[in-house]
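Checklist before submission:
- one chain only
- standard amino acids only
- sequence pasted in full

Submission:
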Amino acid sequence: MWVLLPSLLLVITLLALVAVQRWRPAFKSYWFVATVGALLAALVTLSLRFSLPLAAHFPGWHLGDGLEFPLNFSLDAFSWPLAAALLVLLLSNLLRSVRRASAVSWPIWMPSLALAAAALLAVAAGDLLAVALTLFLLDVLLFALHSAVAPEEERGALLEQLALTVSSVVLALAAWATPPSYASLAAALLVLAGAVRLAVAAGPRRGTRQSMPAFASMLYMAPLAATLVLLQHVQPLSGIVLHLGLALVLGVALRWAIAALATDAPAHLMQLGLAALALASAMAGVPSAVLGFGLLLLFSSSLAQLVGHYPVARRPLVAAGAILFSGLWFTAVQGTSALYVAPSSPLVYAVLPVHAVLLLALLQRAASPTEPPAPDEPWTLAVESIGAVLPLAILFVLGLVMPLPYGGNSAPWWPALAVLLLLAAVWAGRSALQRTGRRLLPPHLRLPRLQVPAPRRVAAALSAALAAVLRLLNSLLEGEAGLLWALLLIALLISVFSQGGLAG
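Returned file contents:
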């Protein structure tokens, strides 16, 4: 039960907030209660590093002999860094909200704790069925909390996002029910489910009617951390499917990376590019690279926050961020280098320039001019400083204590140096073009605009495709030949399940 203890501590913190408000209405330090609960959960999670792996098993459903579906939760070398990162980022956002501790009401601190508790359940899910069920729980909770505080005009978009994420859960359940003899089909379904969830989670963000400390960050981080666990269960693709998939995903990631270099580019372009690299790693069957790019995605905004708190030290902090995020062996994102150990496709090496361009966009955003925090009481400034420094400090510590095979010096060191050299080359070439006023491409050549389709269009396309399939089946089953087509379809289904079967 140690696996579920961090999530349980966050739930107890929620109950403590309600209890304190009920029996001590004059109490004003609700921020302190929320912060202490997040701190205890983070410390417990970090201490569990020395007891890995940990597992918890629950009976689940028993439908008969051979039809038992238990629920398994575990903390291992993949899920433990995600849980630790999620709690540290939650704690950091709470610490940086100290100035508003006495100016907001007690319910403001509850949604972020609830989302983190649900996300920890999804991160600790040990099998695909548990992942699908906990993802559904997280999606419903996220929609309920966000729609309650979202502007009226954005609730329709939130409902569309819920429909897409629920459809990804259905795809995950379909992959879980697919016979082992059709493993390639299950892998394709999981890749599609992961792509849908990453596009929704890393895409443009919806706002709230009021400023809610730590809630906005959890709206972004909780579904991303849970989706990375889903990508862990993707079996590697092979053959032409792998090559075409990598070419498509890396091409889209490169286009997003180039667009993210613009000075007025929105932050979600860079995040979508990093999410595409995590998806490509899952397709290539390298979970350590999925974890590395996932941690880079989760901590991508931490460098800009730290530089904004210490603008005088902008240059050394940006240089330190380049080293931390390049994938050197002593950092938490070192797993990205494992992508190049016996690569399953030569297209994997295209990740190096894409990683470099995305890292340049991240550093460029962090190095933009900012104002230091406004003067305040010394203790609040100290707490804010801790909250700003904590994420990158823990990112470095995670690189030193991460268990094998995702930690240590098992990953090669040359990809990180290649990323840094490519980053310097891209920066120098871009600076030269800006200084001379020239363009890399001819003026008459314009690349097509690349835009993620709106959830409403995706839902409409899926609905139209389903309606077309149903119309085709209806036309086949009508008339005198309908009975023959039905018998043929039944015989085909019996043949498929007799060859594979749910039990393999």
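Reviewer check: Residues 500-504 have pLDDT under 50 and may be disordered.
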